[in-house]
Amino acid sequence: MTLFALISLLTGGFLSAQTPSPRPTSKIPPKIPVRDFFRNPASRGYDLSPDGKSISFLQPWESRLNIFVRPVNGGKARRLTSEKDRDIQQYFWKGNDFVIYAMDDRGDENFHLKRVKVKDGEVKDVTPFPKVRSELVDDLEDVSETDILFRMNKRDPKVFDVFRLNVPTGEMKLAAQNPGNIDRYITDHAGKIRAAITTDGVNTSLLTRPDESAEFKTVLTTNFRQQCAPQFYTFDNKAIYASSNIDRDKSAIVVIDPETAKETQLVYENPEVDVDSLAFSKKRKVLTFAAFDTWKLQRHFFDPETESIYKTLSDKLPGYEIDVAAHDKAEEKFIVVANNDRTPGSRYLFEKKSGQLTKLADVAPWLKEEQLAPMKAIEFKTRDGLTIHGYLALPLGRDPKNLPVVVNPHGGPWARDSWGYNPEVQFLANRGYAVLQVNFRGSTGYGRKFWESSFKQWGKTMQDDISDGVKWLIEQGIADPKRVAIYGGSYGGYATLAGVTFTPDLYAAAVDYVGVSNLFTFLNTIPPYWKPYLDMFHEMVGDPVKDKNLLTATSPALNAQKIKTPLLVAQGAQDPRVNKAESDQIVNGLKKRGIDVEYMVKENEGHGFHNEENKFDFYEAMEKFLDKHLHPETAAASSASSTGSR
């Protein structure tokens, strides 16, 4: 059962030492076929049945990730599902007899919940409603052998009601009807809906009640800039653990009184970054650790037993980051993830009683870790004195001087880049590019002030941070100023277009992947279930009426006459977040002016490409495009990707 809670125990036995992570080669590595970076993994998504007798995992079948299961003690794996249109991305066990997974239609993000019988592989769509999105609320693992709580927007596309579903029979009953403004429901450890978060687009309220027979009472209202996000109830169901930035810049883990929302205890805070993740043991009813990102994921342990197992596993798997990703209900068997910045890593089974650590699989055994590039944390000062953090991957075996560079701004934009394996970074570094990732202002995790500094700054200071990162790299002598490209997806696609619009001399090539081009049309075409947040978007991005001049000035499609950089654009036709019209506008505007623009549209994709054949097409096109504009001396050479094998 894959849980938010991670439980770890070590009472005896030993782990045999594993081969440490190999050092990167000092020579130029071989050119790895592009498809080897983006093909489906050999397997991933390992989980355990509640009774600990079965291991499940995702593995390709007919070029799509499907669910397989096998006995934990060995034996032949058996395929449970037969999805051919889309990969299964996530799933979970319900009891020992059923597995539930989500599936949308060609990337439209209207996910249906499907349940499959483990015994015979019978699959049933339990939410077979067109244009309806379904999401898990609580798997009720410790409450019911048969039921789960989920939410869907069937009654009103803008809001989600909660239903209780009997998984074996498919029968569902309304558990909570949304009055129109509830964004999230929170259950206690008995599976009762005890709290909710409402929004009017700008203000957020916390509602609580002592039991499900009582009416909700508003106990806290804040502007969206201040956040008190419930994590879960305390183990006696009398208080709530939450991540809060109220009266502080950095979010901290606190305990609040559900009757008053008053903070009664500070559990953990970090002076440098937000802390917004808390883990616990369901069986032992103890907090295990708080997790947060500095330059990479860190943990503050509360529980000695959990800390002991992480230390032991780290000692036995040197050079790898360790995560306990799943476990059985008895907390006797654990799925262990071991990876780092140069490999998606391996998966292991750890058995507490024997202390045995057994390798289950290498996720991508065709990739050699020593041939991939380390991801180094960097920081620099912007033109207005702000410290910006990010990452730099340098191609192996090359003198880090006058290198071609690909700047890769992240999406969100209220997200962040983190240290870890990234196939795009490794693909580009293998082709000889330095790869720069910038956590520009507004990136999450660095506190409220840093986040708020991005409001109404799309195309302005947020973009300046990316430009300043490029200039810093040039000043260091690493970047060849004539061979810098920019590539990003979603908001990163917007930043790509803004980069070539507002700093047209900075970039020699650009790749826009499902990016926003016109802020007016973007704000008018968001999914219906984003509508409650529209007023917040107006404060964070800009109001189409009040800030008309700002949005006009910062929309690349409305300033396309400034673009002269060669451009590759990729778009999913079913994208519900950034409609295809966003890409159409920029492409049509440039083609009318005779600008070199390549346009790839995939009819069976949404916000980003997921099917591997579409990823192959996109990254092979990117390779040729960048080679043409950043490596003119090799433009005529045949691409290694053309012979890449699956």
Structure description:
This protein starts with 33 loop residues before the first helix and ends in a 16-residue tail after the last helix. The chain is an alpha+beta fold and 646 residues long. The chain is globular, with a radius of gyration of 25 Å. It is built from eleven helices and 35 strands. Helices cover 17% and strands 33% of the residues.
Quickly give the structural class.
alpha+beta
- Biggest sheet record: 8 strands, mixed
Radius of gyration: 25 Å
Number of strands: 35
Poorly predicted sequence stretches spanning 5 or more consecutive residues: 1-17, 632-646
Can you count the helices?
11
Q: Judging from the principal axes of the Cα atoms, what is the shape?
A: globular
- For the record, the CATH architecture of the domain at 377-635 stands as 3-Layer(aba) Sandwich
Main sheet: which strands, in order across? Answer: 28-29-31-30-32-33-34-35
Specify the helix fraction band: 10-25%
Overall pLDDT metric:
93
CATH uppermost class of the domain at 377-635: Alpha Beta
Strand content: 25-35%
Can you tell me the CATH superfamily of the domain at 377-635?
A: Alpha/Beta hydrolase fold, catalytic domain
State the CATH topology of the domain at 377-635. Answer: Rossmann fold
- N- to C-terminal distance: 31 Å
